[in-house]
Every structure is written in C-alpha cells, then in structure tokens.
Amino acid sequence: QAQLVESGGGLVQAGGSLRLSCAASGRTFSSYAMGWFRQAPGKEREIVAAISMTGSATVYADSVKGRFSISRDNAKNTVYLQMSSLNTEDTAVYYCAAKSAGIAFTATAYEYWGQGTQVTVSS
Question: Are the C-beta atoms of residues 40 and 91 closer than 8 Å to each other?
Fold first, then answer.
C-alpha cells in the first residue's frame, strides 16, 4: 500500500509558477504510474498529467499542455508537477495518485490518493 503526501500548493498571481511535490511511501515507488488530478469547486475531478513507472512516458490534459510538466525521481520516491503561466482557471485542489502498471486517464483507475493541496491563482 502506498501513502502519498502532496506539498507546494499556495496562492500565486496569474502568470506565475508553482511546483507541486508528492512524496510516496510504502511499496516500491517505481512500481507505480503516477498522476496529478485537480478538482475545482462544483466540478468533477480531472486528470492534469500522468507519468509512467520509469518516467519515459507522460500525458497531459489539453488545458495544461505547454504550461505544466510532470516528472519523477524514483530515488527520492517523489513525483513533481511544475506549473507555469498559471491562470485563474487552474485554481483547484490538486491531488497526487498512484496506480500499478501503466498510465491511465481516469480517476477511477488509480488506487491510492493523497489528501490534496490547494492551488489558488489570483487575477
């Protein structure tokens, strides 16, 4: 079983940047594909980005392509989400999630979840 803890959220002005981190403990981190999801008030949880077990493959939501970058450091059991050119529509609670085997695009495919970190972008 994996335990996930996100950090790095906060308040940032539009156009700014933030880097989220998700530290994992438990089973071998490198055996999990990892994903970042977000949920804004009144909206469904949506995928932001995902990365394969080795980091060789990544996928992004269209809304964040070219602005966000997902990466992982298996030696540190950590996955990152670098966010730049933030806008008010990026305001949400951001969740880190883990699943065995390959990348998936839907929240229901992920087995383990962190508690979330709030990202608020002001105009």
Answer: yes
* Helical (H) or strand (E) element with 86: none
Which band of pLDDT confidence, cut at 50, 70 and 90, is reported for residue 1? Answer: confident
CA distance 10 to 33: 25
Q: Which residues contact 7 (CB under 8 A, 6 or more apart)?
A: 20, 21, 22, 23, 117
The pLDDT value recorded for residue 119 is 98
Q: How confident is the model at residue 98 (pLDDT cuts 50, 70, 90)?
A: very high
pLDDT-based confidence at 27, cuts 50/70/90? low
DSSP-assigned states of every residue in 2-44: EEEEEE--EEEETT--EEEEEEEEES-GGGEEEEEEEE-TTS-
Read off the tokens for 81.
């989400």
Q: What are phi and psi of 104, to 5 degrees?
A: -135, 160
Six-digit token string for 60: 């992004």
